[in-house]
Design brief:
homodimer; alpha+beta; Arc Repressor Mutant, subunit A; Enolase-like, domain 1; DNA-binding
Chain lengths: 356, 356
DNA sequence: GTTGGCAGTCCGCCAGACAGAGTGCCAGGC
DNA sequence: GCCTGGCACTCTGTCTGGCGGACTGCCAAC
């Protein structure tokens, strides 16, 4: 690949756009004759051949083998997406399906995320993914220890992100309802409004010690705070892997396997999208979709894939991410419109409905 | 397939067992010469040929085409599993890996289920699934409305299955902490110990009305009870679909697609296993693994698959199910041992750790 | 700068040949 | 009566060579 790309005159740009468009639709390498027959270019195939040879030298096209048509390179797709492609809007039908879906969507965050990936994979015909907003920076709001019976209690922690942890504890000795209430009140007044990650174990222990509660209860409180802060298991969902089987590029079992492995390894999948969450939310305008193509994904297994990502807002609870993964040969315009539209509806749904 | 199967004498039984064993290991149709060469049968290949012809007539073996070796039929596998196969126990290595896994497993039910499927798919080299115990028959234990601020409250319902619902509500007018406490106490004394599904909306409304709380709060209470009772989204997890790609029987993309679709359609997957949960938990000894082979699964897409299921106990909270899905040509003995061992460890883990 | 023409290249497909694996059957032996 | 070696037959998978099709690159002419 060239460091510096060839400048494109108007005709080259049109030819490149047409090659990409045709290849996306047919999955077959595009030849000069096909081009002149199907599109009104006003010149002969010989001229197209000359132009295509220059586009190949310039790094926009590649030839799978001598005497085959041309296929776009990463740079070819990139140029197409950034400068040549006509932006698309949602079709009426897609809009309706998205609206219908969210009208009866769940009120539980994990379920909504899950349903959204199903919707998006169905509409896009590709693999769809979603991650929930991270809870790194949530503020502590409330802790409550609730007396259930002499030997069992419920502890619950609420943050600005909603209920962050709850758990039933069993005690080896009887506990007193008043003690639990006093401890709850003390913790609330001490930590109210603080950011979760700043609330340390020693400080929690100090409060327990002040009130003279048993070691067992002190341990329980520390545990439930730790759980509320935990961010190691990000909420992530994926759906539609079987859609990829329809794409000729995945008829090769090795490639398919590599993709499936990535999808099941939630960690890799998360990193793939989360990169975008940190890097891009600062640099691009709010809510803009973003496309990464082939090697831009920095993973060999995904060298023939592209990913469309788009952030969604969850009120003041942070930013999540929707993503569509498919072959590089994907209908970028349509998928960008779909992802954006779905992200918008998802955000609205999350704000309208009280999500726990 | 024959209604009545041929009686098997000792030699036929041994030959059938050997054919199944060999086919499971090689994935190639088994011929008479292979059999005499690899196993000490004491007779010539011609004799084996005669026996195999009878086994085929009896419905235990089939021939993919003339002049190919034999392959077991559903009945052949069934006989092997029920009567011919030597039971296996967990290897030291597998035991250790299961133990290690649960030593550091999560305390959250959904996560444990998820991690268990990953473990089991990794060990078995097949697709693993798990469903959590249903919460149909849980008993109501406690409800608490917690004052967070003048305009926000937290409602939480605890059942014998743990925390069944929690949700933050925002009010249009200020609410009073004492009102919330009084309502909580009234609900607790009214419903304590009852089975969740017997607690109706009208009865809940009656309590709210008695205490004269606002309609808004009344609605909230009804909503949170409804959520706690909801069983429509069964907790189900699956992992290891990519393992199936290694099996030659899934190199056919259509078959693979059908399987992947089933895995993503959680409903079908759930039905597949839940059948077993209701039908079998009554009829088979507690905790016994169960195998369903090919057409026994009553799904055309799964005609070439088998499923091993094994229930696990979650204390007094009901029974869940682990399952392994793979080609009929699966190492039944090993998978049964793995599933049983994992189910046992999972049950122990769920009882040891306080799961929320 | 553009074009038609032409030689050259590579792929995919098909038919035919062939080796390999396995069966069924039969006649002879224990 | 059961077992066995031998043999003819069948079917598969693979390999090969040939052929048509689809392109390209280049050149000479416009």
């Amino acid at each position: 690949m060239n460091d510096k790309l060839l400048e494109l005159d108007k005709r080259k740009a049109f030819i490149l756009a047409t090659v990409v468009y045709e290849y996306i639709n047919t999955a077959e390498p595009v030849g000069s004759v096909t081009l002149t027959q199907k599109y009104n270019l006003g010149v002969s195939s010989a001229t197209i051949r000359n132009e295509m040879a220059e586009l190949e030298a310039g790094g926009y096209l590649v030839q799978p083998h001598t005497s085959a048509g041309r296929v776009p390179s990463d740079a070819g797709y990139r140029t197409y997406v950034d400068r040549l492609m006509a932006p698309e809007t949602l079709t009426k039908d897609d809009s309706r399906r998205i609206r219908d879906q969210f009208r009866e969507a769940s009120t539980e965050l994990a379920d909504v995320i899950d349903q959204t990936t199903r919707l998006l994979s169905g509409l896009s015909g590709n693999l769809a993914m979603a991650i929930a907003p991270s809870r790194d920076t949530h503020a502590f709001k409330h802790v409550q220890l609730i007396w259930l019976s002499a030997r069992t209690s419920l502890a619950i922690v609420v943050t600005s992100g909603g209920v962050a942890a709850q758990r039933v504890f069993e005690w080896s000795t009887d506990v007193n309802a008043d003690d639990l209430t006093r401890l709850s009140n003390a913790l609330n007044s001490r930590f109210g409004g603080r950011v979760m990650e700043d609330i340390g174990a020693t400080e929690i222990d100090a409060v327990s010690a002040e009130l003279g509660v048993s070691a067992e209860i002190g341990d329980a409180v520390r545990t439930v705070f730790a759980t509320a802060r935990a961010t190691d298991e990000p909420e992530i969902a994926a759906a539609g892997a079987q859609n990829l089987l329809d794409q000729p590029e995945f008829h090769d079992l090795r490639k398919l396997r590599a993709i499936l492995r990535i999808v099941e390894e939630q960690r890799t999948l998360y990193d793939l999208i989360a990169d975008e969450l940190t890097a891009e939310s600062a640099s691009t305008p709010d809510g803009a979709p973003h496309v990464r193509i082939g090697h831009e994904l920095r993973a060999d297994e995904l060298a023939e894939c592209s990913v469309v990502t788009v952030p969604y807002r969850f009120g003041d609870r942070g930013v999540g991410m929707l993503a569509i993964l498919g072959p590089r040969r994907m209908p970028y315009g349509r998928l960008i419109a779909l992802a954006s539209g779905t992200a918008r509806s998802l955000g609205e749904h999350l704000n309208d409905v009280e999500i726990r």
